[in-house]
Amino acid sequence: MLAHYVKKKGILSWEKAIYKMSGAPAERFGIEKRGVIKVGNHADIVILDPETVNDIATINKPYQYPVGINYVLVNGKIALEEGLFVDAKNGSVILKGRY
User: Fold this and answer.
1) CB-CB neighbours of 35 under 10 Å
2) For the chain, what are the domain ranges?
3) Cβ neighbours of 43 (radius 10 Å)
């Protein structure tokens, strides 16, 4: 989404695209304390390089991870570091009605 709609097509700003992938779904599904960076919220954060972020998955190879994603933090703990998953269980599945 970021590489296509922000970088290539210029349809969305970085801020709007990130909101559509984080804040909007949290609001839509009533998931409290997620979706925006704010004191008291869970620290679910993605740190990326806007110059290199790119989707490399294809129809033939759909399970390719994007490049340019440096870190992913779930509940304030590193889950992905320099493109590699860290052996950590930092979150849990959010089930319907249990936000």
Assistant:
1) 20
2) 2-85
3) 14
Strand, coil or helix: 1: coil
Tokens representing 90? 């930092």
Which pLDDT score, from 0 to 100, does residue 97 have? 61
Q: What is the pTM of this model?
A: 0.80
Q: State how far the Cα of 74 lies from the Cα of 13, in Å rounded to an integer.
A: 24
Largest CA distance in the chain: 42
Residue 85 to residues 21, 35, 89, Cα–Cα distance (Å) = 21, 21, 11
Tell me what the mean pLDDT of segment 22-34 comes to: 92
Alpha carbon distances (Å) from 95 to 23, 78, 99? 18, 23, 7
Judge whether 18 and 44 are in contact, CB under 8 Å. Answer: no
List, in order, residues 6 or more apart from 12 with CB less than 8 Å away: 5, 6, 20
Q: Tokens in use for 48? A: 């990326």
